[in-house]
Amino acid sequence: MADQSFQRTKSIGILNVSLGLLEGLATQAGIEKLAVLSNPSLTLPNAGGNKQIISSYDAPVRGGLARMIWDQWGVYRAAAKTGCDWLFLPKGFASFTTAPPIKLAAYVHDAMQDFYRAHYPGTFSRAEAWYFDRCLAATLRRASVIFTNSDFSRREVLRIAERLNTKAPPVVTAGIGFSAPAQPPSAKEENYIVVLASQWPHKLTRLALDYVRRWQQQTVYPGAIHLAGQLPGDLALANHPNWKHFRRLPDADYIPMLKKARVLVCFSAYEGFGMPPIEAILQGTPPVYSRIPAMEESSQGCGFPFDNDSEQGFQSAMARALACDARTVQDWADLLLARHNWQAVAERVMTGLNLHT
To answer: What's the alpha-carbon Rg for the chain, to the nearest Å?
Structure first.
C-alpha cells in the first residue's frame, strides 16, 4: 500500500477497499505473518497483533518517477525481504519489467481503462494509458490468482484477457466489505440531499447537476443541495440556488453529512462495484443511483435506481426516495451487511490463496 494516500489517490473507494482488506486479512487465523508495505501518510487499522509487521516507504507516494520505480522494481525487492509466501497487490497493477519473486495475488477493481478508451478517448495521456495497460497485462500473465469486487468485474477481467489473447489465472469474486455504523441511524432533522460529484467524465457530473437543478425547480424542493466532490474544471454553480459545494471530504466529515441527508444521489456510467449506495443505506439514507450492472449487482435490489437517459425516471426515483421510511432502509442495511462484510471477503481471499498455493 506504499503508493496510496488520501491526498493523491484518484479513487478514495480503492483506498478504503485496501484498508478494509488489510483489516479483514489481519483477523484470519490462517495467516502467520502479515507484512504491510505502507507509507507515512496512512493510518492503518490496529489489527493483527504480533503477526503484523509494518514497513514504511515514503518515495512511492510522491508519484511520478518514484512511483514507477516502486511499481517496477521496488515493491518486488521489498516483498522478497519479508519472507512471506505471497505478495498481495490491492490496486491490481503488476510490474511488466520483472517477474515477482514470490507468488503474486492481485485485486483488480474494474476495466476502467478499456471503458475510457472506448467512451472518453484522450482523457489520459498516451504515456499514462500505455503504462497502466502494460501493468494490467502483466497482472494477467504473472498473477497466480486475481480477486475482483463483483461478478461484473470478474467478467471484465476475463474479457480483457481474451482481448489480449492471454490465458487468465483463476479469477475469484472476493467482494467488498462494510461495517455497521458505530451509532445507529437517527431521525432526519435536517433537510438536504447529497449529490456526488467528480472531475472524472464517467461520473456524469454535468448530467447530475442538470437533472437535480431541474428537479429542484419543478418540485420547488425547499431543502439544500450538498454537492460533495471535485467539479470538472469548467463547471460552475452560479445558477444553482441553495447549493453548497464540499470538495474532497475525509470520512470523518463525509459520513456525518451522509447520515443526516434525506437522500444520496449517485450518477455513474461505469463502476466495478459501486460503494456509495451501500454506504448511504448503512447510514440510514436512501440512495438514488444510476442503473448500471455493477451497482445493481452490489445493491441487491435496494435503493432507487434510474436509467441515465431518463430524466423522468430520475425524478420518479427521487420522489420514492424522499417518501421512503426508516424501517425499509434498515431492512436493506441488514441484508447488505450480511452479504458485504470484511470477514466474508477475507475468507474468500484466504480460500483463493489456499487453492492456488
So the answer is: 21
80 HSE (CA, 13 A, CB side): 8
d(CA 223, CA 110): 36
Question: What pTM value is reported for the model?
Answer: 0.92
Size of the chain, expressed as the number of residues it contains: 357
What are residue 53's DSSP bridge partners?
35
φ/ψ of 150, rounded to 5, equals: -155, 165
Share of the chain above pLDDT 70, in %: 97
CB–CB of 354/28 below 8 Å?
Answer: no
d(CA 160, CA 135): 13
CATH architecture under which domain 12-177+341-355 falls: 3-Layer(aba) Sandwich (3.40)
pLDDT at 306 over 80: yes
User: Per-residue confidence at 241, pLDDT binned at 50, 70, 90?
Assistant: confident
Tens of pLDDT, residue by residue over 125-138, are 899 999 999 999 99
Cα angle 39, 82, 11 (rounded to 5 degrees) comes to: 35
In the chain, CATH 3.40.50.2000 covers 12-177+341-355, 192-339
